[in-house]
Write a structure and sequence with these properties.
Blueprint lengths: L1 H15 L5 E3 H8 L4 H4 L9 E3 L10 E7 L2 E13 L8 E12 L5 E4 L10 E7 L2 E7 L7 E9 L2 E11 L25 E5 L1
Parallel strand pairs: 1-2, 2-5
Antiparallel strand pairs: 3-4, 3-11, 4-5, 5-6, 7-8, 8-9, 9-10, 10-11
InterPro entries: DUF6705
Pfam families: DUF6705 (PF20448)
Keywords: Signal
C-alpha cells in the first residue's frame, strides 16, 4: 500500500511540474536576425521556457563601470541574473543583465540614482546580443519620452573598457504639463558613444 501511495505521489508531482526546455542566447540572437522574423517569429523556439547564457557571454559586463561625458559623472553597476522572470507568471525566463545607474552633474550633485532600487524598478535591463554588442533598454524620465535602447560593448583590445551608446525612442505621447522643457531636455544618457572603465 505504501508503494502505491509513493508511486502515485511521484507521478502526480512529475505531471504537475512542467519540464524546463532550455534554449541559448545564441539561438534567440540568430532568430532576431532572420529576414522573416517580424512576420513569422521563430516557431522552432516556441517551446523554450529558459534562455540560458551557455557560453557565459554576459559575464564580461558584470561589475561597476565609471566614466565622464558632457560634464556628467556616470557610475553603472551591471549584474547578471540567471533564470530571471520579471513576474512569476511569465512563461519565459532569461539569463540577462540588469543595470543600476548613478549620475552626477559637474558640481557633484546627484541628478539620477537607481542604485538602491529593486530589479523591477531600475528600468534598465538587457535583451540579447547582436554580434559583440549587448542590447539593453533604459527608461529615465518617461514624461519627457526618455526611454530607448542602450548598446554596450566591451572593447576588443581592452576588457576593462566598455562603450555605451543610447538611442532615444521618439514614439509615445508627450504631456507638456509634465515635461514643459521638452524642446531643451537633455537625456540622462549620452547619444554619442561613451567609454566606461571597469572598477
Amino acid at each position: 500500500m505504501k508503494n502505491i501511495i509513493l508511486i502515485t505521489t511521484l507521478l502526480f508531482t512529475m505531471l504537475s511540474c512542467k519540464a524546463q526546455v532550455i534554449g541559448t542566447l545564441e539561438q534567440f540572437e540568430e532568430c532576431s536576425m532572420r529576414p522573416n522574423h517580424n512576420a513569422e517569429g521563430c516557431p522552432d523556439l516556441e517551446n523554450i521556457t529558459y534562455v540560458k547564457d551557455t557560453n557565459n557571454r554576459l559575464d564580461q559586463f558584470v561589475g561597476i563601470w565609471k566614466g565622464n561625458y558632457g560634464g556628467k559623472q556616470y557610475e553603472i553597476r551591471l549584474e547578471k541574473k540567471v533564470n530571471y522572470k520579471d513576474k512569476p507568471s511569465d512563461e519565459l525566463a532569461w539569463d540577462m543583465i540588469r543595470g543600476r545607474i548613478l549620475i552626477k552633474n559637474s558640481s557633484g550633485n546627484i541628478i539620477y540614482n537607481s542604485m538602491n532600487k529593486s530589479d523591477n524598478d531600475t528600468h534598465f535591463w538587457g535583451y540579447n546580443f547582436r554580434g559583440r554588442v549587448y542590447q539593453m533598454h533604459f527608461v529615465g524620465n518617461y514624461d519627457c519620452l526618455e526611454s530607448g535602447n542602450v548598446s554596450v560593448e566591451i572593447k576588443p583590445n581592452n576588457p576593462n573598457e566598455m562603450l555605451l551608446s543610447y538611442y532615444q525612442d521618439r514614439d509615445g505621447l508627450l504631456n507638456p504639463a509634465k515635461c514643459p522643457n521638452y524642446s531643451t531636455f537633455v537625456p540622462l544618457l549620452p547619444i554619442q558613444k561613451m567609454t566606461l572603465v571597469k572598477q
